[in-house]
Amino acid sequence: MIIWLNGAFGAGKTTAARELLHLLPGSTLYDPEVVADGLCRSLPKERLARADGVHDIPAWRRLVVDTAAALLCELPGPLIAPMALLRQEHRDEIFGGLAARGISVQHFLLAVEETFLRRRIDLRAAVDGEAARGWCLGHLPQYTAALPWLTADAHTVETSRLTPRQTAELLAEGVRRGDGICEIVQTPPPSGQTLAAGVLFFDDQDRVLLVDPTYKPGWEFPGGVVEAGEAPARAAVREVAEELGLRLPHEPALLIVDWEPPRPPRFGGLRLLFDGGRLDTDRMRDLLLPGAELRGWRFAAEDEAERLLSPGRFARLRWALRARAEGRPLNLEAGVPVGA
Question: Domains in the chain, please, with CATH?
Answer without folding.
Answer: 2-177 (3.40.50.300), 194-337 (3.90.79.10)
